[in-house]
Amino acid sequence: MKNLVLYLTINYPTRAVFFEMLDVVAAFGIGYVEIGIPVEEPHLDGAVVRQTQEKIFPDLTKAEIVSVLAEIRSRYSFNVILMTYQSGVDCFQLDQLSQELYDAILCVDQTFDGKFAGKLVHTFTTAMGEKEVETQLAQSSQFIYLVSGKGKTGEFTQLPTDYLKLLPYVKRRSELPAFVGFGVKTPDDVAEILANGADGAIIGSEFIKQFNEGGITGIKEYLSELQPIFENGLASK
């Protein structure tokens, strides 16, 4: 499932269990993992992700982040995307990390110019103007992150379709794969996204929820349900 992106908050619920989850992710051949770097006030995230960040943030240090990322690099081959806020970049001095420790950074409330050149993932919404879209496409790496619709992560009752207005535009203007996130929960959601022309999907809150409810077994079962969607050739290779 090379065109699936999964979100996990670093060291949630513990470092040991976090790596157990990554073992599962690697076994299923997931292409990208968003490693959430928590902040004190993750205001754009819904309750599921927020609670993971509230648990981890008080005891997290820059040294621990470096240690975890180094271990990930030594054990796995999936691409690592750091997901955080401007306050996370400042608090943990992420701009000082060796760029060999990760493949790109996604800062949800700030766009960077030069600081992380060549290592940026941007989110794209229908509220953006054409110039802003063009600028961020030129700066993007790894994949194009299309936000399915307006709202906080994990708080959609059904998959929005706002992204359909922007999807053809970005695909014409970038060779990067276009992935859709926010509100993606079920195999049917993923199948719909791929059938509508996206190259892959991004799952965050639902993956955490599956773990919270079913543990390691729960996420194995969940990924097993998603696997046929990608293996049947719907996702771009």
From TrEMBL:
For this protein, the Enzyme Commission number is: 4.2.1.20
> What is the name of this protein?
tryptophan synthase
Could you list this entry's UniProt keywords, alphabetically sorted: Amino-acid biosynthesis, Aromatic amino acid biosynthesis, Lyase, Tryptophan biosynthesis
Looking up Gene3D superfamilies in the UniProt record yields: Aldolase class I
Q: Per the record's keyword annotation, is Ion transport included, yes or no?
A: no
Q: Which reaction does it catalyse?
A: (1S,2R)-1-C-(indol-3-yl)glycerol 3-phosphate + L-serine = D-glyceraldehyde 3-phosphate + L-tryptophan + H2O
SUPFAM superfamilies, alphabetized:
Ribulose-phoshate binding barrel (SSF51366)
> What does the subunit section of this Swiss-Prot or TrEMBL entry state?
Tetramer of two alpha and two beta chains.
Report the enzyme's class at the first EC level. Answer: lyase
UniProt keyword Transcription regulation, yes or no? no
Q: In which pathway does it act?
A: Amino-acid biosynthesis; L-tryptophan biosynthesis; L-tryptophan from chorismate: step 5/5
Query: What InterPro entries has UniProt attached to this entry?
Result: Aldolase_TIM, RibuloseP-bd_barrel, Trp_synthase_suA
